[in-house]
Amino acid sequence: MEKRTLIDSLNNNETEEIINYYKTAETDELCKKAASICENIHGKDIILRGLIEFTNYCNQDCLYCGIRKSNLSAVRYRIDKDEIIKTVMIGYNSGLRTFVLQGGEDPFYTSDRICRILEQIKKVTEYNASITLSIGIKSRETYKKFKEAGADRYLLRFETSDPKLYQKIKINSPFERRITAILDIKDLGYETGSGYMTGLPGETEDTRINNALLCKKLDLDMVGVGPFIPSNNTPLAESPKMPLEYSIRATALLRLLLPKAHIPATTAAGTIDPFGREKMVKAGANVLMPNITPVEQKKHYLIYPGKICLDENGNEIIKDLALRMSSIDRKITFSKGSALRFS
Ligand code: SAM
Asked: CA nearest 286: which of 252, 241, 318?
């Protein structure tokens, strides 16, 4: 999709003004503006979502990803239903009220198995917790089943708004199929999340602007953006490492375009910069996703190298995040953090 087409289809002078401002503003100024909009709408609260990476088996072969099926050096694991429930309960007892179940596209986890897990999580948390799924493209029928079984939210990044680049990094999988899946998710009444990586090889500044415009066009409830980190044993291993600034500017632009959206300060940002997550929050992010996957397994969910928080358990990570946030005048909250259009 061309930028021009997107702007036209948004039919909105304000959007064009925001883009023009973004193009000329220094990063500091852009971030200050985005942070002030964020504070007006979301206050100083930073919402926590407990991330459980429950399988790193994947039948996809995305060029950028360390758990792609062709990476034979990846150590594979699956966390079974009982262990997932145990992990949720540890998180729940620490105060978490949102759980994000993320995984590779693992055929073992059939829709029936996922539904049984969703139902059980709802039951053990006495229907007090929200569940987000992030397990890739499924049929509309399957998304419907997940919703009926208790999934409240779905995360499916479009990865890049450039269809040609998408097709390249996803090995001929059509971009339109991804967008159709996101539209299905939205249409079925999920709180809908998507997003993209910044710094992919072949991406341009126009791509980055179009990425943000596509999020606006999709009117997302949640947008995750983070730097692409070249991963060992993948075809993109030798790609240049791009600066975190691309993700920081993207966060600020997204906050200007989608003031109400929930935007995480991503682990990838914290991986390439020790204060990456703080910088993302100062650019308008309002969510953090502590990785509460059992320590034994999480070191193997290596979508990129150098991932942080691999030796700490959920409680230790939450304590660390609380300190980090208070150092920048923010406060973690355990609220469910539902999409604002639902509250
Ligand atoms: N299989 C699901 C999917 O594709 O939506 C969820 C798991 S996938 C590993 C989660 C996200 O990891 C992807 O959407 C992608 O943006 C991110 N990711 C994968 N490899 C990455 C890399 N090398 N650098 C940064 N992010 C990466």
From this structure: 252
Asked whether 91 and 101 are in contact (CB, 8 A), the reply is no
Q: Extract the tokens encoding 98.
A: 């949102």
C-alpha of 23 from chain center: 25
Phi (first) and psi of residue 324, to 5 degrees: -60, -40
Mean pLDDT by runs of 10 across the 343 residues of the chain is 46 90 98 98 98 98 98 98 98 98 98 98 98 98 98 98 98 95 98 98 98 98 98 98 98 98 98 98 98 98 96 97 98 97 75
Cβ distance 46 to 333 under 8 Å?
yes
Phi–psi pair at 50, nearest 5 degrees: -80, 120
Q: Is the pTM of this model over 0.90?
A: yes
- Ligand 1 in contact with 283 (CB < 6 A)? no
Q: How far apart are the first and last CA of the chain?
A: 32
Three-class secondary structure of residue 72 per DSSP: coil
Of 132, 175, 178, 197, the residue with max ligand 1 atoms within 8 A of its CB, to mutate for a pocket test, comes to 197
- Residue 209 tokens read as 């602007």
What residue owns the CA closest to ligand 1's atom 4?
136
Q: Tell me how far CA of residue 89 lies from CA of 82, 92, 185, 240, 300, in angstroms.
A: 11, 5, 27, 41, 22
In whole angstroms, give the CA distance from residue 137 to residue 342: 24
Residue type for 342, please? Answer: F
Helix axes 175-187, 140-149, angle to 10 degrees: 40
Q: Which of 52, 55, 65, 173 to mutate to test the pocket of ligand 1 (most atoms within 8 A of CB)?
A: 65
Cα torsion 183, 170, 5, 190 to 10°: value is: 20
Do the Cβ atoms of 265 and 224 come closer than 8 Å?
Answer: no
Nearest-atom index, ligand 1, CA of 303: 20
Residue 340 CA to residue 157 CA, distance in Å, equals 20
